[in-house]
Structure formats: C-alpha cells, structure tokens
Amino acid sequence: MSIEATCTQSPNSLGRRTFFQWLTYGLSAVASVVLGGPLFGYFLGARPRAVHWVPLDDVDKFPLNETRLKSFDNPLRQPWDGITALTGVYVRNLGVDEQGIVQFLVLAVNCAHLGCPVSWFPQSGLFMCPCHGGVYHVNGDRASGPPPRGLFHCVWRVRQGRLEVQAPHYPTLQDTLVSGEV
Amino acid sequence: MAPGASNNKSGGLRRRGVWARTCISVCLLVSAPLSFVGCDFPGRPNPNERPIPADQVVEFGLLYRKNCSGCHGTDGKLGPAPPLNDALFRAIIPAAELKHILTKGRNGTLMPAFSQENGGTLTATQIEVLVHEIKGIPYMIVPKQNGGRGEVEVVPDAGGISPRWGAPVRPPANVPSYNQAAAIVSRSSAVQQHDGAAVFVRACAACHGEHGQGIAQGHAMVRTINDQVLLKLNSDQVLRRYAITGRPDLGMPNFAEPRPGNPHFQALTEQQVTDLVALLASWRQTTVNGK
Amino acid sequence: MRRGLYAIGAWFEARLCLCESLWPMLTHPIPKTVAGPMGWWYIFGSASLTLFMIQIVTGIGLALVYVPSADRAYDSLLFLNYEQPLGWFLRALHFYAGSGMVVLLIVHMSQVFLHGAYKYPRELTWVVGVVLFLLTLGMFFSGQILRWDPDAYWGLAVSGSMAGRVPVLGPWIVELVLGGDVIGGNSLSRFFTLHVFVIPALLLIFLAIHLWLVIKKGISSPPVPGQTVNPKTYDAEYEQELKTGVPFLGEAMLKDLFFSAFAVIVVVSLAAIIGPKGPHAPPNPTLGGANPRPEWPFLWLFGLLSLSPPEAETFIILIFPVILIIALFLVPFVSNRGERAPSRRPVAVLSVVLILTVLGTLTYQGATAPWSPQMSAWCGEPIPEDIVRRSTPRQLQGALVFQNKNCRNCHALQGSGGQRGPDLTWVGVRLTSDQLIDQVSNGTPGGGNMPAYGKQIGPDEMTALADFLVSLQPPNQTLVRETAAVPTKRKEP
Questions:
Q1: Most confidently predicted of A128-137, B171-180, C125-134
Q2: Nearest-angstrom CA–CA distance, C34 and C32
C-alpha cells in the first residue's frame, strides 16, 4: 500500500501510470472487438441463401387438373439431414394458357398459420391442416380456419420438358417463397 | 485401530460375520439392478410394436381400418358401400380388376383412387396386400429383388400369411360372371329392357316394388331403387355386382337364393343379369319417383 | 484407523476451511415452526431439486448413447428403447422426472405465493425462482425436439412460424431458431446445445443463487394471520424468532427427505410401468397423417391459440407470454409487505385458483384438440351400423357422399369422427333439407369455419347427401320405420 502510494505521488510515474491505465483500457477494448465481432457474426449471422433448381418430373407426368404430392431431396439440406431433408410440394397441372404455355400451381405443404403439414383431399378439393384446422381451396386460397393467408406458392419453371421448382426454404409470413411477395 | 485388531476368538468370529454380511449386501446390491435388467416391466417397449411410418404399414387389419372401413364397414360388412367381406364377391371379382379399382378408383361411383400416383395415400405394396387379402390368396412380404433398402413386394405363397377373412368359397358353377361376358349375344337395348322387366318382376319386385318404386312403410317408401339420384351415383358394373351377390349383410338375397314367397326361385342366368342391369340403367333417365 | 481418518479430514479441513464457512451456513437456525407440522408446506422445492439431480444423472446417461445428428438421432433413440440395457427405463425416467419437476415447481410457486413467502426480504428469491421455472420449461421444449420424431419436426416448424410473426426481425429470428433455411440437422444441433449445455448451465447458476438466497435470507416462517410484514421491522422480528430456531440441517430436513423419497419412487414407478414416450414414426416430413402435438406443459398455449380469434393470434403468440412473465417477475414488487396468511389474502387465493383452473381447462382442451380435423376419419371411421341398417338405398348413397367428401373429418356421427364442426348424429331434427343444402353449398357465411362445398358436390350427390342428413334423427322419431323394417328382409340396390 505504502509503495503504491509513493509511486502515484511522483509526477513522473503518474503520467506513466495514467498512460498504462489508458493503454490497458484501449487494449481491452480492441480485444473485446476482435473477439466479440467474429463471435457475434458466428452466433447471429446467417448464410446467404443459395438458389437451387430441383427437377421434379417430366411435364406430362402431371395429369391435367389434378393435384399431386411430389417429394424431393431439398438441396438446401446438410449432408447429415437424413430423411428430414425430404420436402414435399403439391403440384397441379393447370393446362396450357392462351399462349400455349403449360401452367403449373406449386404449393408448399406448410400451413400459413403455424407451419403444420396440410393434407390434400381430392374428393372435396380442399387442403386441411391437422393442427388448428386451417382449410384451403384447390388453388391454395384460404377457405376457412385461422390461417391469415393462403398456402405459400413455390417458384417453378419448365426446362427441357421438365418441371423444376426453386428449392423452398421454410416459408413464414414475412419470408415467403416468392421474392417480393408478403 | 480397528476393533478386530485386538484379536480374540469372538472378535475373529465377529469379523467373519461382518465379512459375510458385507458379501451378502454387495451381492444384493449388484444383483438388484441386474434383476431389473432381466425383468419384463410393463413400461418396457416391445420391439414388435415399434412405430411404422404410414407408407410402410403392410398389416391388413390396420390398412383396412384406416382406409376402407369408413365406407365398407368395420369388418367389410354393414357399410354404406358394397360389402367387401362377401364370399361370393371375393370369389368372382378378378384380382386384376380389384387392383385396378384400388389404384384408380371406380368410374361412375364414389370409390376414389387410393394409389399415391393417383393422389391417394397407398403404396403399390399396400394395394397388393389388400388385393391378396380380399381375394383370399395367402401371401408373403419379401424384400424386393433389385430394390432399394427397405423396399418390399408381395408374392403369393401358400405357406405365407393367410387372409383374415379366410379363403373364398368355390362359387356355384352357374354363377354369372363378374364382368359382363362378351359371349352374350348383343341385342337391342329395347329387347334387353323388356326382358329385364320380366326378370325384375320375378326376382326383385317382392321387395323393391313392381317398378322399383319401393314399399310403403309408414309415411315413407323404403328400398326404392327406381331413383335417378341413386342410379346416377352407381355404375352399371356396381348394379351388376349387386344383382349377383346381393347384400347378405342387409338381407338382400344373391342371384340364386330364394325370394320372399318363392322358395323355389330359379337362379338368374348370365343373360338375365345383363338384362336386369339394362333395365336399371334405363331408369337413370326416366323414373317413377320423379313424376 | 479412526485416528488416521481424522488426520486425513483435518488435512483437507486445514486447506478448505469448511468448518468456518459452510458448516455454520448449513446449521444456521430456521424458525422453529418449520420443523413442526407446517413444515409439510416446505417440501416441494427440495423435491424438485431431487428430481433435477435425477435429470442430470439420466441426462448424462442418455447423452452417452444419443446421437444429435438428424440422420441418426432417431435410430439412436430406437437403440435406447430396444437394445441398450435399461435404455428404455432411462428415457422414461428422464421424461417423468422432468414432468414431475414441472409439476412440483408449479406447486412450489403456488405455495410460496399463497404463503406470501416472496415478500420482503425474499423478492429476489422469487425472481430467481421464476427464472428457474422458465429455464425448466425451456428444458422441456428443447428436450421434446431431441426426440427426433414428427412431433419434434413439426414442433420446430410451429416455433419457427411463431418467431416469423415478429415484426421486421421475424425472418432473421426464424433462421436463428432453425439454424438454416430448412428444418434439419442444424436445428437439431441447436436444440441439443441448448438442452445439454446452455440451459443446464444457466439452471445450475440460478439454482446456486436461489439456494444462496434461501440460506442467506432464511426460510420464511409459516404465515400467521395478523402478523404482517413491514420491511422496516421485519429483519429484527425475524432475528428474534430465530433465537428459538432449529438448525437448517437437521430434523426439519426429515420431511423434505421423506417427500423426496416419495417423489423418486413415484417417478421411477411411472417410468417402469408406463415406459418411455415415443419416439413415434421417423421424422419424414413428406408423410401425410402427421398430427403434431406439443408436450403437456405447452398444451394450454396450443389450446389458447386454437380457441382465440385469428385477429388476436399474433398478440397471443408474441406479447401475451411476455406479459405473463413480466407479471410473474413483478409479483413481489407489487406487494412486498402486509399480510401473508392466505386467509387474509382472498385475492391471492382466488387468483391462484383462477389461474390453475384456466390452465387446467386449456390443457384439457389442448389434449383433446376438438378443433383439429381428423385427417383419416372419412375413410377410417365407419358409418354406425344402426344408421346403415335403417337407411334407404338413396340415404346409403348419401352416407357415401358424406364420407367421400371428407365431411367426417370435421363432423362426428355418434361421437366418432372430427369434432371441429357439430356432431351430426341428429342433424335431421335441427335442419331441413333446404337448409342443409344451403349450408353445405355455401359454407359458414363470411368465411367462417365451414368451407363452401358448392363446387365440389354434384347435384345428385347433394340430393343424396341431404336425404341422408335429414334421415339422421333420434330413434323415437324413426321408431315406426325401424320396427317395421326389422322383421322383413331388406333389399338394397
């Protein structure tokens, strides 16, 4: 105690001591930033979302005006995802439009309410959700129950006679599968 | 110093007693959990009851209950749809046709397609199980040749799983064919309906009324079959099946069984069944009820 | 030998100094009445601590075998259930001891609340206790995810969708919860880390603080009506009371020990008799027929979400739980003085009764989930045989339409089938044919619960269906028809 007291009293060492204090604070701040930055980035960051196109099947394999559950291995998967990487979409062949281009309706299986898997009932033309009873029409529009919107539409295209779908992430109300759509 | 160190006879004996007790205690302590391992506790899960994903269920009872019982009845009888657990029906329906109906549904009726590729939920294997069970063919479920992991197929095997509803009886020799036979000489529909009307009076009128208008019971008519609504929801093939097999679960006699008031009823022939169906089909357009 | 042991003990004591630090703490005096019959109110906290110890041991045991990888987790659970000796028992015990912990914590909190034990100077003890309760619920939720079956998968989906409703930050939080763009191995690893490292570490830290506070601020004496808490005088009064106190570690502990032993025997018996929960089918998200259900401590929220109007939903998901938690935290700050006896605090007693009743009712609703359509009722729930027997051919056809158009998924007949819509066993008494056709064609007006089926049902089908529904009347009204029908042979088309 007494040694310290004498040290701080010397004007020369006072400057050195203050300098060392500030140096320590500064160094600690730098250490915090170089440590905290990457840690924050690791824990809270998100990978950029890649765009993958998944070929589903030949266009003529989808019967006209019928809805089919089509499942595929989602390329957004991790190699160790196992069967949880399987993803289902409901595909409906809407036939050719005025320009002679075949049109499809591709819907995610996740209920817009809280994400549970809806089932398709061809006889009544409805999708029903087992969790809270959301019901959707054949075109994916909300028919009844708690969902705030219709089913999520997937992005699709036809390449070389095959229907391809853009690999869907897990869709939520503010993060749908069609960019720009909310 | 331990008390045993002061060595006398009784001390030695006591120490042996302590040792014995320790040994017994240790043995008990070790064996108690071991007996726990060996015991069958009610909570211990049975490997035979491990959960099976819906698309891998091949047990007929479960498949039937989950998919068919809604319309065809708990045990294949007494449902609103034609009974499947019907000896005559199981004997005469061709296996190929059964498979076709399960896979693609039946046109002109409310029977929907059940195969996955047609929007249903059943796999090809599950449909094969249903076909073998309904037809009464013993079968085995074996790993598919050149198939992937876990893929199985159904093959007939006399020593395999015996169908729950038993082997079908041999149908009588005079039973009309399930599908309309090509051998029947095609005649004009007017002639068919005329002959069909005569068959109707002989075989059906006692219960369904002279013109199929039904029988009055209290305020209502019952067993009305001359009804456009009813006939438009049933295909000719279903009508033909009813004419042959009847509905034993609801007391309707088959093609050969005696009719009320006519114990010596002569069985319907192939031709008569065909004519009868032609008559019923003609009622789809004109109906006594609709007048 | 005894002297040798004593020497070893002394060697450690000379370095650890427990005799002067820990021992006085453990033998500090507590109010004498706690050692009396009123002491039976004080047994729940220690019993939940005992079950927590079981959770640590069984959890370590399960972690020896469990593989937190999306493609192997399910297989390792099957291995635990069927191959690993007593693996099934450990899984079951882990579930029932965890459930018991939640139950005991609820009882413990209710007791502390009713006895006003959270009042001055034990406010912080209550706050830390609430944190412990929330962490335990966090353990329950993350634990359910580790049981990598469809319930776990869709539980993740539901929590993702709930998080997705947060304004602006929603998508980012979803990604944070799921650990990626899709539900899979990353999500499982996340919840494994939470369940095995993060939450247990927090639990142990807050448990230490809780116990420290219990020892430092003392155990509250059983409430006596009229004996009020005044922060200015309480400390002196309490000190006075302790002069006749009994040691903490002693006879007062006997009841705790007794009840803990009882609780252990109960959870062990439950585990041995009922066995492990799940796993259900493998977590294949493309298989239909999934029927996800939350674990029982969350069924009340599931029920509340289903029974509340859609407009209130985002509020209930995002804001309501926060309000509940804040309310729990604020309890000792709203009233930290005054009466402690339940007999003088009717509002406190009523609120406990009310809250537990509401939670119980919502939990029951959540367990039965009458709002969920039964997805396989249309093809898996037979038309009752007495209805088939008394129907005309056209009505039978209507029954087929009823099944075929999936009406049964939401409407029960004689109690079997979906419960979302009304049971239609006797609908013929309530509605005429025209009313029925209107209801089926147009659904519930204004986009209500029943969708419009007008486009899905043809005219003949509709006629048959209405005829069938009108025929659904109580036996006394159809008595004439039925009795007349039985003796005669019936014929169908």
A1: C125-134
A2: 5
Which chain B residue has the Cα nearest residue C460?
Answer: B229
Distance between CA B75 and CA A16 in Å, rounded?
96
A93/chain C closest Cα distance in angstroms: 18
Residues of chain C contacting A143 with CB distance shorter than 8 Å: 443, 451-452
Find, in chain C, the residue whose alpha carbon is nearest to that of B209: C491
Stated as kind and residue range, the H or E segment containing A152 is none
Residues listed for chain B: 291
Q: How far is CA C472 from CA B281, C396, C407, in A?
A: 29, 12, 15
Residues in A 69-108 with any Cβ partner in C closer than 8 A: 69, 71, 74, 76-78, 80-88
Secondary structure (DSSP) of C244-303: T-EETTTTHHHHHHHHHHHHHHHHHHHHHHH------S---TT-TT------GGGHHHHH
Rounded Cα–Cα distance for residues A180 and A166 (Å): 15
d(Cα A121, Cα C227) in Å, to the nearest integer? 67
Q: Show residues of chain B in contact with A138, CB under 8 Å.
A: none
Binary contact (B230, C389; C-beta < 8 A): no
Say whether residue C192 is in contact with chain A using an 8 A CB cutoff: no
Q: How many CB atoms lie within 10 A of CB C166?
A: 17
User: Which tokens in the block code for residue B61?
Assistant: 């009872």
Q: Is C432 left (phi over 0), alpha (psi -120 to 50) or beta?
A: beta
pLDDT level of residue B23 (50, 70, 90 thresholds)? low
**Where does the pLDDT of residue B52 fall: very low under 50, low under 70, confident under 90, or very high at 90 and above?**
confident
Structure tokens given for B159: 């020593």
Q: Across the interface, do C162 and A78 touch by the CB < 8 Å criterion?
A: no
Question: Taking CB atoms and an 8 Å limit, are A144 and C371 in contact across chains?
Answer: no
Q: How many CB pairs under 8 A join A and C?
A: 186
Contact check, Cβ <8 Å, A146/C290: no
Q: Identify the CA nearest to B222 among candidates C476, C489, C437.
A: C489
Contact C152, A155 (CB under 8 A): no
Mean pLDDT of all residues in C445-460: 84
Which runs of consecutive H residues, i.e. helices, occur in B115-217? 124-135, 189-203, 205-208
Domains in chain C (CATH in brackets) are 31-368 (1.20.810.10), 376-485 (1.10.760.10)
Summarised one tens digit per residue, pLDDT across range C321-356 is 999 999 999 999 998 888 999 999 999 999 999 999
d(CA C109, CA C128): 12
Architecture of domain A53-166: 3-layer Sandwich (2.102)
Residue type, position C140, single letter = F
Q: Which of B100-114, B139-153, C99-113 has the lowest mean pLDDT?
A: B139-153
Contact with chain A for residue B119, Cβ under 8 A = yes
- Residue with token string 């996340």: C190
Closest chain C residue to B64, measured at CA: C380
Read off the pLDDT of each residue in A25-48 and give the average, rounded to a whole number. 91
Q: How far apart, in whole angstroms, are the C-alpha atoms of residue C214 and residue C206? A: 12
Give pLDDT, residue B35: 57
Main-chain dihedrals φ then ψ at residue C431, nearest 5 degrees: -125, 145
Which tens digits make up the pLDDT trace of C1-14? 789 999 999 999 99
Start-to-end Cα distance in chain A: 67
Which residues in chain C are contacts of B68 at CB distance < 8 A? 379
Judging contacts by C-beta atoms under 8 Å, the chain C residues touching residue A145 are 449
